[in-house]
Automatic annotation (TrEMBL):
The chain crosses the membrane at residues 291-313. The lineage of its organism: Archaea, Methanobacteriati, Methanobacteriota, Stenosarchaea group, Methanomicrobia. CDD domains: HisKA (cd00082). This is histidine kinase. Its EC number is 2.7.13.3. It comes from Methanolobus halotolerans. It holds the Pfam family HATPase_c. PROSITE patterns: HIS_KIN (PS50109).
Length: 575
């Protein structure tokens, strides 16, 4: 397009030169009219060029899809999204494929793949059996595994506690199949409740209509915060997710997918990192639509017409140009000053964004990349302890279990504190503090019974207050600390009293060793534990308590027990 314009312009310059050098060519008006007709003709031809620029349709690839959140998401209108769909669409754009999505269940898609009715099935777990029946790609995009959730206060913490429990599962889920086979081999009765989706699984657990629910780790990471549930230390069938093709598929297509996935994984700017309790990220792709090609062609034609008009109005333009130049110089000075200020603001914004991204990445690493291996270790240690009879090995396994539990507690507390520090405000609702304390005491009573400690809480009525449900962590941390640092056979009192006529003061009174005056100002800081080197803990519990109380615009503190040995931890809240 630009070459045509350039040739016409060169032709015009040469013609003008000939006219000036040849006195016989004096009829410039006629010559100019001839040139004008040529340019108009070229403009008309140029407007027709974009219609020939449309891309030819590429190879049609039939792709089997099924609902597998968050890897593959089928919207209500039938639109297919999710990381695997985005990746395949990126490959299709590069290879000039035209994708035709065919929806169905997992079983229907496997049957279509085996019968050569589809060319590709996305988000398929790798297994030796599948590798024999189909052609699997070698480059996986992510590894997933099954995880278990239970409702708070269920008392279920390990695989041995599942006996006789109601286990909610997705009837078509591969993790259900693997867990069912594993549990069946133990000759123990289990009651499975089959539903149609992971969301129904978590809803049953949240509503206590099931004791345990099994979902994939990616789905749990994304949606677990929407429910009042707790993750168990149970890992089911870790497997790598790949693409599957028919057994007689083209080796070239398989190699093309593997090479493209490998390149996408190595390009940090192309596939974004996506964190927990947030939506999935996307792959940055862009396709030049046909309308844009037409627009460019029309714009080129209009540009050519503008050049023609500029010849006609040349004298007037030159007259106005000098006036505009002086005004432009003044505007350029203002623009440069404004650009310099904007550059500084953008630099400052980029630095803040980078700092926040590093903090979010650190929190995600704590919460997922570190906690997952630790929970895997916990599950396998519990499994080995069930059947181990050698005393020496049992002692070693219990030592591993104790230290791993300490590691899990430290990681969870660090992640919770990092998450709380990024929160500016909480949503509140009216709740009874007394009911919350009673539930916490009930949950911690087994731990107190191990040390023959009695927890006394005698509510004198209702204690309504505007709080967030996370306030439970405050009472749980403080009472758990009192149990940890108190001697066997002692008493812990929990007292709720009036504070400033419009709030409540909760006091936890123990008979422990007490806290020195030197340590009292320090214990609510991170990793400060008042010199208790022989007590297990992360040193973050009281820092979490302080941050939650601050978000409630309350206060927290500690003092010596007035009537004798021990400490009094207190927190205040507005009513």
């Amino acid at each position: 397009m630009h070459k045509y314009i350039l040739n016409l312009y060169v032709f015009y310059i040469m013609h003008c030169s000939c006219v000036r050098e040849n006195p016989n060519l004096i009829n410039r008006s006629a010559n100019f009219n001839a040139i004008l007709r040529c340019l108009v003709l070229a403009s008309i031809l140029l407007l027709l060029v974009p219609t020939a620029l449309a891309d030819n349709p590429g190879t049609i690839i039939k792709v089997g899809v099924f609902q597998s959140e968050p890897l593959v998401i089928i919207e209500q209108r039938g639109e297919v999204t999710g990381p695997y769909a985005y990746i395949l669409e990126t490959i299709a754009e590069n290879e000039e494929w035209e994708l035709n999505y065919i929806q169905g269940s997992w079983e229907e898609n496997l049957e279509r793949l085996e019968n050569n009715e589809i060319d590709i099935l996305i988000a398929v777990p790798y297994s030796p059996v599948s590798d024999e029946r189909y052609t699997l790609t070698s480059e996986g995009i992510t590894t997933i595994w099954g995880i278990a959730y239970t409702h708070k206060g269920s008392g279920i913490s390990s695989i041995k506690d599942l006996r006789g429990k109601r286990i909610a599962v997705d009837g078509s889920d591969m993790f259900y199949t693997d867990l069912n086979a594993s549990l069946t081999s133990t000759n123990t009765n289990y009651q499975f409740v089959e539903v149609d989706s992971y969301r129904e699984v978590l809803e049953l657990v949240d509503q206590k209509q099931a004791d345990v629910g099994i979902v994939s780790n990616l789905y749990g990471d994304t949606f677990e915060d929407e429910y009042a549930i707790s993750r168990m230390s149970l890992v089911i069938a870790p497997t790598e997710m790949v693409f599957a093709l028919p057994k007689n598929a083209s080796i070239q297509m398989v190699e093309t997918i593997d090479l493209s996935v490998k390149e996408l994984k190595e390009d940090a700017g192309y596939i974004s990192y996506f964190p927990q309790n947030s939506q999935l990220t996307h792959i940055n792709t862009w396709e030049s639509p046909t309308w844009l090609t037409l627009t460019v062609g029309i714009g080129g034609g209009l540009l050519l017409l503008f050049i023609i008009l500029s010849f006609v109005l040349k004298n007037k333009v030159e007259t106005k140009t000098s006036e505009l130049n002086s005004k432009n110089q003044e505007l350029e000075v203002q623009v440069r000053e404004r650009l310099a200020a904007e550059k500084k603001l953008k630099l400052y914004f980029a630095q803040l964004k980078h700092s926040n991204e590093l903090k979010d990445l650190f929190t995600d690493i704590l919460r997922h990349d570190l906690i997952n291996p630790a929970t895997v270790i916990k599950g396998y240690v519990e499994y080995l302890l069930e059947d181990e009879e050698n005393v020496q090995r049992t002692t070693a396994l219990k030592a591993i279990e104790r230290n791993n539990l300490k590691l899990i507690e430290m990681i969870e507390n660090a992640a919770n504190l990092a998450k709380l520090e990024s929160v500016e405000e909480l949503s509140f609702e009216e709740m009874d503090i007394g009911n919350i304390i009673e539930e916490v005491v009930q949950n911690l009573q087994p731990r107190a019974d191990e040390k023959q400690i009695k927890i006394e809480f005698r509510p004198g009525g209702d204690y309504p207050a505007k709080v967030n449900k996370i306030i439970e962590e405050v009472f749980s941390n403080l009472i758990a600390n009192s149990i940890k640092y108190s001697s066997e056979g002692t008493i812990i009192e929990v007292v709720v009293s009036r504070w400033n006529n419009n709030g409540w003061k909760v006091s936890i009174i123990d008979e422990g060793e007490g806290i020195s005056d030197h340590d009292k100002p320090l214990i609510f800081n991170r990793f400060e534990r008042a010199g208790k080197l022989n007590i297990k803990g992360s040193g973050l519990g009281l820092a979490i308590v302080k941050r939650i109380v601050e978000l409630h615009e309350g206060d927290v503190g500690v003092k010596d027990k007035p009537s004798g040995k021990g400490s009094v931890f207190w927190v205040t809240f507005h009513q």
